[in-house]
Amino acid sequence: MTRATGLFREGEVAVALEVFDAAVGLNRAADPDYESAGAELDGTLVGWICWGPTPGTQGTFHLYWIVVDPGWQHRGVGAALIEEMERRVAKRARLIAVETAGRPDYAPTRGFYAGRRYRVAAEIADFYAPGDNLVVFVKRIEVGDQG
Fold it and tell me: What is the pLDDT of residues 96-118, one digit of tens each?
């Protein structure tokens, strides 16, 4: 699914698979630093999200990965996954951070976060590669704020 989006480099796909395995406990017990949720339709995983508390912080969580099968994008799967994550962390989190790329092909991804009230907090030029900035989005969470 991650590879099928066409957005991730092979090294990023490998990292996503490692995080997925750690989050759901494939090949060993699940890593308690990762939490995850999946969207399943007719027995098929069509989307996945992984998050966890940011070490060394008080109430900050990091959204590590969100991936939706290309055939299910723009149909509410990603929004449902974000809402589920926010619901699950609502009483523990005060801030959610997510990193994404600044390349032109990531414009829909950045729009997705902005549309869910995440705001750009930082941008580092040429972070991932020349011309590929790191864009950090954050959202403050208050009790009862679930989306």
Answer: 999 999 999 999 999 999 999 99
The dihedral formed by the CA atoms of 82, 84, 86 and 92, expressed in degrees to the nearest 10: -150
Which amino acid, 5?
Answer: T
Gap between the Cα atoms of 39 and 45, Å rounded: 6
Predicted structure pTM score: 0.79
Dihedral angle over CA of 37, 90, 117, 121, nearest 10: -100
Q: How far apart are CA 122 and CA 43, in angstroms?
A: 39
Asked if residues 85 and 37 have their Cβ atoms less than 8 Å apart, the reply is yes
Enumerate the H helices of 35-134 as residue ranges.
77-89, 107-114
What digits encode the pLDDT tens for the residues 1-46?
Answer: 555 566 666 666 555 556 655 555 555 555 667 888 888 888 888 9
Q: Residue 96 in contact with residue 63, Cβ under 8 Å?
A: yes
